[in-house]
Amino acid sequence: MAKFYELSTEADRDLDEIFDYTTHEFGIDQAVKYISAFDDVFENLIKNPQFGRDRNEIRGGLKSVIKENHVVFYRILKDRVRIVRILHGSRDLPKFLSDGYSE
């Protein structure tokens, strides 16, 4: 049973980039609101980690959930949920997840 979540270095960077883009396009208030909503997604994954879609076609053991325009990729580990990446749905997702991210 997952007790907490953790962000990979890449997922943390993804959130920073999402924040910066949202601030530029929609203002700081919207950016704070949008980024804060990811916490709800992450907390829900702790409670129900099996909720997401299996993404074995990208990498074994990878799962994903959608949050508006973004896809949250994660792994279920022994005592936690590890958020691997948070990518815009329009990106070439397999390319960003095929290699080079920290487990």
Task: Kindly describe this structure.
The chain is α+β, with helices and mostly antiparallel strands and 103 residues long. Helix content is 42%, strand content 26%. It has a five-stranded mixed beta sheet with strand order 1-5-4-3-2. It contains three helices and five strands, in the order βααββββα. Helix 1 packs antiparallel against helix 2.
Keywords for this entry:
5-stranded mixed sheet; alpha+beta; 103 residues; 5 strands; globular; 3 helices; disordered C terminus
> How many strands, which pairing sense, and closed or not: the largest β-sheet?
5 strands, mixed
Q: What is the straight-line distance between the termini?
A: 19 Å
Net shape: globular
**Oligomerization state:** single chain
Radius of gyration: 13 Å
Which spans of ≥5 residues are poorly predicted at pLDDT below 50?
99-103
Describe the secondary-structure layout:
Blueprint (H helix, E strand, L loop, with lengths): L3 E4 L1 H18 L1 H20 L5 E2 L8 E5 L2 E7 L3 E9 L4 H5 L6
Parallel strand pairs: 1-5
Antiparallel strand pairs: 2-3, 3-4, 4-5
Helix pairs in contact: 1-2
